[in-house]
Amino acid sequence: MASRVVFLSFVVFSFSSVLASDPSSLQDFCVADANNTALVNGFACKDPKMVQADDFSFSGLHLPGNTSNPVGSKVTLINVAKIPGLNTLGVSLARIDYAPWGINPPHYHPRASEIFTVIKGSLEVGFVTSNPENRFITKILHQGDVFVFPAGLIHFQRNLGTGLHLPFQV
User: Of 58, 64, 122, 128, which residue has the fewest beta carbons closer than 10 angstroms?
Assistant: First the structure.
């Protein structure tokens, strides 16, 4: 009898391990509280009863950035500082404006992939793989095209005359 209990306990434990998954969030959101200096995986959460629609909104992405600088591009980052409702969600958004032949210099995002859409013009994009071959993957994109850069890989974008895209970093 005792051996059956042990066997059944083992079977139940085995199935519970197989059915395990990531836990759901403990709360629907954690709007950043600008008045609190404590950091909790981001910023401290605003009291949910005080949250408003404006905590999840930003106006101004339609405004072009100033590209008169040495690289000929301007990144307008929309993060938790501009949309407090992004706190702890692991996502941000950016608009990049380019002067003719402007570049978003090689860079990487250690904890996030990047996806973007070309709104106008043409862009050359590329990244370098981290495998032993260190392959260079590049493509010319046009209006309406979408491209993804995997997390942690060095990548760039270069305007081929005129263009604009809105990358969504996830």
Answer: 64
- Asked, for residue 44, whether it belongs to a domain, the answer is no
For residue range 11-35, what is the model confidence (pLDDT) as tens digits?
Answer: 444 444 445 455 566 678 889 988 8
Instruction: Give me the CATH number covering residue 117.
Output: 2.60.120.10
Binding residues for Mn(2+): 107, 109, 114, 155
Classify residue 71: in a domain, yes or no: yes
- 3-state class (DSSP) for residue 168: strand
Domain, as residue range, for 82: 60-169
CB atoms within 10 A of CB 97: 20
pLDDT in tens, 147-167: 999 999 999 999 988 645 455
100's CB contacts (< 8 A; 6+ apart) are: 72, 159, 161, 162
Residue 137 makes CB contacts below 8 A (sequence gap 6+) with 126, 127, 128, 129
As a whole number of angstroms, the distance between CA 119 and CA 92 comes to 18
Q: Indicate the annotated binding residues.
A: 104, 107, 109, 114, 155
45 three-state secondary structure: strand
pLDDT value of residue 11 = 45
